[in-house]
Fold this sequence. Notes:
Largest sheet: 7 strands, mixed
Helix content: 40-55%
Amino acid sequence: MFFFVALSILTLGFTYVGWRLIEPANLAAPWSLLAWAAWFGFMLLPPLNLMLRLVRRKRSANTLISWLTYLSMGVLNYLFLLILLRDVSGLVIWGIQKTASSVFAATHSSFLFDDVLQRRALIHNTNLAILGITGTIVLYGVYAARRRPNIVEVEVPFDVLPEELTSLRIVQISDLHVGPTIKRDFVEKVVAQVQSLAPDIIAFTGDLADGSVNDLRREVEPLAKLSARYGKFFVTGNHEYYSGADEWIAEARRLGFTVLMNEHRLIQHGRARLLLAGVPDFNAGHILSHHHSEPAAAISHAPAADLKILLAHQPRSIFAAANAGFDLQLSGHTHGGQMFPWNLLVPLQQPFVAGLHRHQNTWVYVSNGAGYWGPPLRIGAPAEVTMINLLQMNSVQRKQKLY
């Protein structure tokens, strides 16, 4: 049902955009037919890409088709939005013209386009502008998505915190999404960034991959090189459950991660004790009943600790985390919105989209993530690898630094 609805929406979107782009160009008969054939060829890319992934054809062919598919979806997104904005604006102007024609009578020749040729020329010229704007947005979005993630330093203040914990270096990775367009070379860049920060703890907050372990084992292999003084920890995201959660948990362990499934570890740092807990994805229990996400269970029977941190993929785990008594939750999932207009939909599902926030007595930091999902674009939500610094409230002013 999901794929049927998604493909139906894509078909309608492609048809509308093609109609508004190709028809006003007034191409000669063979060229118009070729333009429509090429346009519907792009429309067939998503189902073709899905079939190739299911039958597991040659990897190089899959990668090429995946890139073309996801780029076409990104292009369609902005073409559709800009053309719709133009057409709605035209309807509004037409409505004003009909209801208040006397107001515009003096500027009739320059403002109103009653002539068919004038309207066609206006649409054609605005189409050229829309194509240029879309091309610029997509090129920038690809550059922003594919470059090395930013290293974001976040300072989290607490009223009471042992001095030893202020020197603890926690590095968070989230939403790497190794798969159709994110490969080994990108993973190696992220690993090099993390290791350059000399972490004491590495926290991977879910969505490692999009695909099966068999297909992606080589691509994720560089993660085995990650190392931290007190270890590297992993919790599942929703995407692990789309391609074999148990297999990905086993692979994460093979790569050297400690996988936290409603459980905790106590870390002794000097004389201070930090409790690090983790839960499966918020919705994991709907897919695998024994993976139900329970922050309270993750802290159950825990020894006394100076600070309690929860790794939870989705920000909406914050309510249960606060009730369970955690001091800080590290999350991802949202990608910071990734790109317009989808960033407007994230707040409908999640309490926080990006950055540092507080709920009751618990802090939550939501990472933009290191990778991306779907179209290889990031607009206004740069990718990140996050350094979490723990601070005493009265020693510094809260801030975030971007390098």
